[in-house]
Description:
Distance between the termini: 22 Å
Strand content: under 5%
Number of helices: 9
Oligomer: single chain
Radius of gyration: 18 Å
Amino acid sequence: MNPKTLSYAIFGVGTALIILFYGPLDIAASQWAYARRDTWLKPLCATVSELGVITWWLVGALLLWFYLRYRSGNRYWADRVRFFFAAVAASGLAVIPLKLLFGKARPWMLYDENRYGFEWFAAPNAYGLHGFPSGHTTTAFAVATALSLIAPRFAPAFFVGALMVGLSRIGVLFHYPSDVVAGAMLGTITTLLLYNFDKITFKRH
């Protein structure tokens, strides 16, 4: 399927899921995680969440690109690592204004202040209102999509890993399911659109 067409399809399905989850299902999932906040679930989810930290991916990709491009002279893989870096960076930049625009309260605010939903135009320092979309999930799905384009054989494993990161964000009470779906959609679509723009990287050799 053409990347643009696939992006439209993902946007449609993702939007439908966000509408489905928003409200009672969001809250029910959060309550399930909240009831288990003092069990093994939360530290496990916190560990898995580390896979969604954008810094590790960007620094690692930059170092690998430098080695491949200037030390080993492997242009083939250097171009693919460059694409990976650009996809993760672009999705990370895209999520910031969306968090500020939507201003969605994070799950802990439901229990501390009885606040849920979109409050719109959040201040940059209002961290509790930066719930939508999930940044960690955005990064995880950008990573999974980029790696799947580079190594399609392992795509199922990449996306299972990304899904685990998304679920972990619910488990640590940082996000609702609708936030996770939005992050998955953003990370995937951003990477697909970049691939559509930069397909020369995958045809040069």
